[in-house]
Design brief:
elongated; mainly alpha
Length: 130
């Protein structure tokens, strides 16, 4: 692809032609559309690119490529997107992460993680949901 084609539609370039882009073109597209990079190109992102995407789009990183995240990146995503963490990864969260998510979004905790909640957490959720 030419630079002009890439700049005209970087999302399309990532989704359909990532393997044909130069490293510079690919990096440009990743910076323009980090969520698209996580969805279509997670396997070929450099560690620096993954880290950039994680910080720009933590919910997407958590829901689309959690298995590729470092423990620090995973923790960052959990803290930035507790709803996604509760919905998709409640069983993989540490006790501290789970409690953080419960307190950040008690209604999601009740709906998606009821059986994992302690009695204290259940009470907290019931008192703090409408």
């Amino acid at each position: 692809m030419t630079n002009e084609e890439v700049k005209e539609d970087p999302m399309e370039a990532l989704a359909r032609f990532a393997d044909k882009l130069t490293p510079e073109q690919f990096d440009y597209c990743v910076n323009k559309y980090p969520w698209t990079a996580l969805i279509f190109c997670a396997d070929i992102l450099t560690p620096e690119q993954i880290d950039y995407c994680v910080h720009k789009m933590p919910a997407t990183a958590l829901t689309r490529c959690a298995d590729k995240l470092t423990p620090e990146q995973f923790d960052y995503c959990v803290h930035k997107s507790p709803i996604a963490a509760l919905k998709r990864y409640a069983d993989k969260l540490t006790a501290e992460q789970f409690d953080y998510c419960v307190r950040k979004d008690p209604s999601t905790a009740l709906k998606f993680s009821f059986n994992k909640l302690s009695e204290e957490q259940k009470q907290y959720c019931e008192e703090n949901t409408k």
